[in-house]
Structures are given as C-alpha cells and as structure tokens.
Amino acid sequence: MIHIGRGLEMQEQEKLIFHPISLEDRDWMNEKLREEKLDACEYTFANNYMWADVYDVRVGSAYGCGVIRCRGQSFVQYSFPFGNGDQKAVIVHLMKICAVHGYALILYPVTENNRLKLMEWFPGEFEIYSDRADADYVYTTERLSSLKGKKLHGKRNHIARFMDGDDWRYEPMTQENIPECRRMAKEWAVLRADKWNEEMEQELRVLEVAFSNFDALALTGGVLYKEDKIVAFTIGEALNEDTFVVHFEKAFPDLQGAYPMINQQFVLHEAHSYQYVNREEDTGDLGLRKAKLSYYPDILLKKYWAQQSHVVFANETRPQEIIDLWQQCFHDDSTYIEMYLDHRFEIENMLVIYEDSRPVSMASLLPVQVTIHGTKENARYVYAVGTLPAYRKKGYASEILRHALEKYGEPLILQPADRDLQEYYEKHGFVDAFGESPCWIYAGKCTGTPVIPSGSENNLRAAEMYASDTGLEELGGWSVADADAKAYKAVRDEAFEKEGYVEWDEQAVAYALKENQFCKGRTLLLTKTVKDADVRRAVLMYRIEGDSLHIIETTLQDNELHEILPELLLYTGTAWAFERNMGGMILLPEHFAEWNYEEGYLNLTLG
Fold this sequence. Notes:
This protein has 607 residues and is of the alpha+beta class.
C-alpha cells in the first residue's frame, strides 16, 4: 500500500531525475547535507564523488531534498532523502519509480532518526534491518589525540618506538607532496600483494580520484615522514559541525608505530576543532575490525537498510499493538507478554505482517546455536507464531516462515504445542528432530501414565507444614542453591554438548530462569563431593502446575533424579512429578540438507 504525502499532492509536477554525480553538484549537495546533521560517513559530497565509478553514483533533487542513487551487484539503492524539504514525498516518488521497474525500494544508509520516520510514515511497509559490518566507528578527538588510559597503553608504546631517533615529522597534505603520497600508496600495495583482492584494487582507484581532485573536493590530508620518506598518510573531511570523517589511512605495516602515529598526529593537527572522529565501518573484515576496536570507540553508529516488504519487523515504539495481537492469539496475561517483550524482544527478531494499519500476524525468531557436523552454527528458534482470527486462511504465517528462512539462511527450530500444529509445520517442510523421550514419574518410579494417588490432600498439607518450617538446603546428599544464568549454562553445555545440541546464550538462559520463576518455578544448582574430592554439579529446573511437579530440564541421571524426587515432592507440596523431553522440529536451508537432524538435544525452549 502506497501512502500519498501532502507534499506530493501539492507538487505532482515535481520530477526526480538522476544524473551521474559531477563536481557541478558539489554546492547544492553540500547545502542540502548541511540542512541536516547526518552522522553516517556516506553523507558527504566528496565520498560519493570519489566512489562514483565503482557504484555508478547518480544524484537528483525534488521536493526540496537531495537523493543519491547507487547500483550494487544485483540491486539499486537510494539514500534516505536529505535536506529540510518533504522527505516523505520523495520516498513515495521513489516507490513509484521502483514499482514501474518491478523492484522493491531499498534505502541505505538510514540513520536511527530516519528509521523512526519510516515506521511512522509507512507502517508495515518497510523491513528495516542493520548489519554489524556497516556500523561506523566514532571516537572522541580527545581519545584519539591523547591516547590516555591503561587500555591505550600499547598504542603509546608503539608511538614511542616510532619517535625513537627524532627522525620523523608530520605535515599537511598539499599539491606538493601528493605525488610522493601516490608513490607511497603503490609501494604499500606491493607489500600487500599476498592479500590483494578486488576491494583493495577499487580503493586504490578511489584514492586516485581523491588525489586528483583534492582541492576541488575540499579534502584535508596529513603526511608522516620517517628519515625524509613518506611512511603514512591520511585523508578526510568535515562530516558535520562536530564530526570529522577519515576516508583513507595508509601506513607501512612493517614499520612499528606508523599507524597509531599518523592516526594521532592527523587528529591533533587537522581534527582538533571537532568533537568526534568517524573512522567509517569495517565492512566485515575481521582484521580491520580488530584494529578499529583496539582504539575503543565511543560510539558504534548503527546504520540501517530499509526495503519494501510485506513481512516487516515489529515496531518497538508501538508495543501495545504486539500485546493485543499476542493476547488474542494465545490468551496470555499482559504481564507475561510484557516480561517477554522486555527481555527477549529485539528490533530484528520479531517478524509481522500488517493489514488495516496494524500487525495481524507475527512470529519471533530467537537466535540460538546448533551443533552441525561438529561446528556451532547459527539458527533461529521459532516462537509465538500467531495470526488474528479474522485474518487467518490467508497464508500469513506461512509467508513469515518462508521469509525468515530466506532472510536468515539459518535452520529454523521449533517445538509444536500439539499434534495439529505438528501436522501444520510438516506441511511447510519441518521434520521431527532432536529425539523425543517422554517419561512420567511418580514417587521416584517411572510409569507410562501419570498417577495421582488418593489422599493427596493430606500429603499437600504435610508438605505445606514441611516447607514452612525448613528451607531447601539439601536434597539426597546434594547441596542446593538457586542457579544463576552463568552457572546454569555452563553445567547445561557440559552435560548436553553433542551433535545436534541446541545451545542458548547466557542472556537467553537468564530469561529462561526468570520466566520459570514467573510460572511458579525454581531453578536449582546441585553440588556434591564425589570420589577423589571432586565436586560434581547438576542443575534442575522445575515448576509447580496444580498438584504436579513439572521437571522442565535437569542434567541429573534418571536414578539420581528418582532418589531426590520424594523429598522434592514433599518440599514443593506436590503429589506427583513428570518430565518430558518433547524433542522438536527443524527446517533446514539447502546448504544443510544432508545433515542428520534426528539426533541432538533441544528441550529448553525459552517460552
């Protein structure tokens, strides 16, 4: 559904025509960019001009805003409209352009403020997501220039070694020293020959554009000499009134201290009047990420992609919409739903479909890991899949699951609540996995069905007296304490780690403990001294359901569990206990199609 903004209605004759970026666009683009305080490194004229050939950069203006268009390997993307004009009208115009060509509108980079605008203007129409590799590293100039503190002690040491001999100097980059900087860049490339790739080749081409248009682009550079030879240089420019952005930094890698020295000297001499320095993203390069993190950024600036989609992420600014949908689908108490949203909801793990300007179908995709072929692989646990009754039979839940499999490219794991749901998921390609081993337990004896003994009322009364008079400090020779998330995860991982093991991170386990407590449960850490004075640890998570004790999960062996059950039943005031490992279901992407999913362990399902 396309929303027509008031600006578009008033200015239907506006045209948005894109042309290759040129130096003639510099003044109007800079003027429009100055109308907003944009912190993302892409929002400078010079940056777009330098990369024009690599990404076929084109620009246009309409409705009082500027727009940048780039072409990726398989798609076209547009910047979020910049300037103080009618940004909404521009986006509607772009949506129409894309519709004519048969593709969805993609916007990048989208700042946090503009993400919120999109959700307000076009509810349910854009899937907005981020990639860690795109985050800009932003530091205070004080941090980079002073290098104070214990964490940056190593940087100071490297600089001290570089300064040994007093045979160095720093000077601004000018037309006089640019030719020698060119030669240094070529020598740097030769030293990187064993790691050379297409991206490096592209960067050198872009660097040459910067050198050739240094003054026209109003760039600022710094050059570092050692023994009268250039060993490092940096090029950047003002991003906004309080932030300077660094586009290029080159130094000889085998010269100790060259990189930290040019970094510090450039900030001291050229960026000292700014509060922040943006050193751009790491593009997913782990070596570059390590280097940028070693300076301890003050801000990791998240930048978003926004793409037109029928399936989108839930809007965290409108939690009541999710609460209402959840309640109508599952009839849970609002307090429980709010607890889940407070502790497990993240912007990019709940997918929804909108209709009539509200979410009508949803599913949570919780991050988890599963061991496949001996390697921990990322996966998603599918939880709280529901559609409002009036919107069922339209295939919305199926569409969300297909979208999730394509988007994440990871195995989807779930545990259906009943047989009907199992058959539903089977129709969508899910198969039984992780092994199912139901077992009902009463008074320490396994039986095929639950047994409720007569006279249980007296047993409950006796238990109430027992629980009120004594604390649970010991069970059958085990010392008892409440388990925290760190201990629970460590014991669980050690006990169940094997092929097909579904492993939750500590934050997820912390929620599991909290959710269990909310549901009248308790999670125990059991310790016992065994042979040779070794200490054995186990965990036991249970909750009380009526007069029964539900063992959610335990690392105890069956015989150990049965030994302590009578005492635990007495303490909890319950008449019988049961444990059931229901296994689960899995939908595998093609690259894992050959994996044997029948073995493994799931059980703990966090909600």
